[in-house]
Design a protein that fits this description.
The protein is of the alpha+beta class. The chain contains 5 helices and 5 strands; from the N terminus they run H-E-E-H-E-E-E-H-H-H.
């Protein structure tokens, strides 16, 4: 996800522009391995807290370099991130058109109680076990969306999934 930035790097101006794209999210800084949050915009309060706790826990587990970055809390990044312009924006999802978007782990498996999912260690162990139960050639190219239809994007995904035959 960082390769589009490799020729020239990421500038402060790019980070500032990513923050100005709007939508739910916040600006984060890690200074001397301490997490600082500023400029938060409206989001699901529990989602925002869950992502912040995930980032905070990382600062407790690892010595991280000083950095400043912008985090989007939407299911998908803002539409302005599609196309040729590069805005370094951390997000939980993206398409090929979102060139500057940098994926970060989905907080749902971290500690988001509303999602009613098992922890990532439990979920990943199930996934690994299931993947070993089938050989690669017998797998089919199919994805499952099990999220709640809480936004127009999610409603479209759920509707598309329901219309597809097995």
């Amino acid at each position: 996800d960082l390769s589009p930035f490799s020729p020239n790097g990421i500038t402060r101006e790019m980070v500032d522009e990513a923050f100005c794209l709007g939508g739910a999210g916040f600006r984060a800084q890690i200074l001397n391995n301490t997490l600082w949050i500023s400029g938060e915009t409206a989001s699901f309060q529990s989602r925002s807290l869950s992502v912040k706790m995930m980032l905070y826990t990382l600062t407790q587990m690892f010595v991280l370099p000083d950095r400043e970055f912008v985090v989007s809390l939407h299911d998908f990044p803002p539409p302005q991130t599609r196309g040729e312009d590069l805005w370094p924006l951390f997000a939980m999802g993206k398409t090929r058109q979102h060139r500057g978007v940098i994926l970060f782990p989905d907080h749902t498996f971290w500690n988001w109680k509303e999602a009613r999912t098992a922890s990532w260690p439990k979920t990943s162990a199930k996934l690994v076990g299931a993947s070993r139960a089938l050989d690669w050639d017998s797998k089919i190219g199919k994805a499952l969306f099990s999220g709640a239809p809480t936004s127009p994007v999610r409603m479209a995904i759920a509707k598309e999934a329901a219309l597809r035959p097995d």
